[in-house]
Amino acid sequence: MNKKALVCGAGGFIGSHLVRRLKAEGFWVRGVDLKYPEFGPAEADEFVIGDLRDQRLCERITADARFDELYQLAADMGGAGFVFTGSHDAEIMHNSATINLNMVERARLTGVSQLFFSSSACIYPEYNQLDPANPKCSEDSAYPAAPDSDYGWEKLFSERLYLAYNRNYGLNVRIARLHNIFGPEGTWQGGREKAPAALCRKVAAAPDGGEIEIWGDGQQTRSFLYIDECLEGMRRLMNSDFMGPVNIGSEEMVTINGLAMMIIEIAGKDLRLRHVTGPLGVRGRNSDNRLLRERLSWAPASSLKDGLVKTYAWIKQEVERLSPAA
Predict the structure, then answer these.
(1) Domains and CATH numbers, the chain
(2) Among residues 151, 162, 226, 312, which one is catalytic?
(3) Which of 10, 151, 206, 255 is most buried, most CB within 10 Å of its CB?
(4) Is 151 a catalytic residue?
């Protein structure tokens, strides 16, 4: 008998890749989202279009099957252009919290065997991420809490929600703090894209000898994790006896200027960087994988450049498909 998995947020970037991974492992998968995957077919055995803020939908998708694994990835999210402007805080907090409140209660009521919650590196305190060269993002540094965005505050609240359900009801949860996941078939335009996709798009669209815009001075640091490594970490966490929260990210830190230059090199173009005002987030962030290595005996190993080569090729193809003359 195949194991059954429910993937909430299956139309999104990580969710659609996760469905593919679970299918390859032999799971029967039901996916749920407001939309189908944007860049490929929905590979779930059953895909339900619906709003997880609606309790009736949450009841419907969980009433007819006891799921071995539930993955709660659904959230109102995006890159810096969406999360850090402050204009979307109320909808981010209301929408994501409502989804988590609905799904954790349905998991309890229907006896879901194991539940995965995708938290975020955005939960870490801003005061530990002021020095771009030495950010502190160990799991035990989350408190005293001071995320720099309401997106981060909601994720931290939801971590506590799932942990409370574990303590009070015995719900078997796993929590991972994901760090800047990127790869093909992710959002690359429209305002919700993250830095690697946005820069790949800008480089692909720019004429040789031209320039691309970088928000801020470009000295802010981040690490970025390729989607396949993210999925491997998620599956290893689910197959372990460790509840988390645990970082799943890369320790290969890079400045945004450095990220842009890496993509420009991959593209084989001669481009200049022009720095402009824009939303930035914290000055420095990098995954601390000590706990990950200790508890799962694993950490991501692929290089940022290897992932960017694949991602740039895909985004370049998308840019050319939509703008043949570009």
Answers:
(1) 4-181+227-248 (3.40.50.720), 183-223+252-286+302-319 (3.90.25.10)
(2) 151
(3) 10
(4) yes
